[in-house]
Records
---
Amino acid sequence: MTAPKVMFDEKQIAQRVVNLAGEIAQRISGDLIVIGLLKGCFVFLADLVRALDQAGLSPQIDFIRVSSYGSGKESSGNVNLTFDETGDISGRQILLVDDIVDSGRTMSFTRQMFESRGAANVWTCTLLDKPSRREVDCGADFTGFIIEDLFVVGYGIDYAEKYRHLPFIGYVD
Ligand code: IMP
Ligand code: MG
């Protein structure tokens, strides 16, 4: 595999994250728990919550981990919850943060899970969306960038656990 090529550089990402936080703050006010889907969200979420602070929101932060991908590029098709220490969220507003909506299964599964636990509102935010790959009807409420069907890495996103450290969003062949 050749080195990842730049799709969005650090400056483009930073600008979009600030604008995205503004969009979120226009639609959500008051109590909020941001719940990140590990591991892919970790860089994006760190930037997003600081931008949310600038936009006037004071969210609590938690993480869960779900797995659908194996070690490679193809989804296994079913979603498993493998880490979850979120407490009682009944009556709370939740913003789920993921790196990519691809088939839509992860976001759809996770949204339904928190709705069934009695959240007052479950909002969803993704850094990237690949609508051409959708298999489950599930868009995010807030989307950073809509992209074509390319395999992306960097800014927290991996290919077989590599490239998460890259400061830009790149794509690999
Ligand atoms: P979905 O359940 O098919 O929507 O898959 C969502 C998850 O698949 C994301 O959270 C990513 O972890 C992973 N994924 C989808 N596309 C890519 C990609 O291009 N690069 C790396 N991971 C991806
Ligand atoms: Mg992932």
---
Amino acid sequence: MTVSAQFFDTVEKNIMDSISSHDLAGGSRQKSTDDHLLEAHLAPYATHSARSQGRVYPEVGLLREFHRDRERVIRSGAFRRLQYKTQVFANYDGDMFRTRLTHSLEVAQLARSIAECLQLNEDLVDSIALVHDLGHTPFGHAGQDALNACMRAYGGFEHNLQSLRIVDVLEHCDVTFDGLNLTFEVREGILKHCTLEHAKKLGDIGRRFIENKQPTLEAQLVNIADEIAYTVHDIDDGLRAGLITGAQLRDVDFYSRHYQNVKFEFPKISEGRVIHETLLRVINALSVDLRNNSLSLILQRRPQSVDDVRNTEPLIALSKKTANEFATLKGFLFENMYMHYQIKRMNSKGRHIITDLFDAFMEEPVLLPPQFRFLDGTLIDKARKVADYISGMTDRYAICEHRRLYL
Ligand code: MG
């Protein structure tokens, strides 16, 4: 038996053993005895930082590469501003709703739990999860749509590309270069999707879209963890806000099944606790399915390296049955919550604020703070600077700035 065949047999046994006793939605973490050996515990298909494709500006140091990336992301101003940026509900609607910051933390937590089971690089997963929403405008997707419309004649605006721009150009961590100089793998993980037109302009980072290849398993994992996290926490927030009801949700089989089980097991607890437990079980069921199905795909393909991962179909995926149930749950949210008139009102308000700010700054650049004022360059460069300023705003800063300019 070859070394790698032995490895996969051991991996399968170890992972299967740990699966039976490991609860992904908050269960205890079995500390690996190999933790002190840094990345020696990672699978061959995981992204080892020693084999990273590196940084634009070479650096030397003691930290593991992706650990250093996470540190830079957490210390950035763009990361701090996520705490006052809308996920679905605006920050001023209440203190209990998710913001982009708490969303990013939930994505990181979920993805790390699964990464550990699959022996992927948790540092990389963490860094991608924490950085993935950095480029979002204020007022959620409504803000991004409005800014994209404003920027149509100047190259458009897309939050994934803006996240990349933030870490490559706008943030600083060193006096000798612009940007955070993150590793290729974290930067690649930011770009979930990309048009061919944009991909051609992005060099190495965009190549996988042109060549139709996959990103690292860590990036694939964060991508799906993002969807699971926001779907479940948006249900929680929607219930809290009264935009959707438990009765409506019980029409969705996937939710209803877990709800009935909780009711049966705990007939005397309050409705609030039943719903809380049901949502925990929903996220756990999705996480367990994602872990098990991905493991099974990995064991079928047996990739020996990140290159093997890139050259095959996606290996981190929900099973077909669960993917269908998950799609129904997302469909429910879309119809009943994202289309709710109160959400539409918030979106409309956000869109108007963004559009007004863009028009004002383009018309009268002297209204911009000095560091965002454009002294030279083309109209496209100028519009990009305005988009940088507006997209970096928090919800409340944008509202204040609008008030200062228009009232
Ligand atoms: Mg997200």
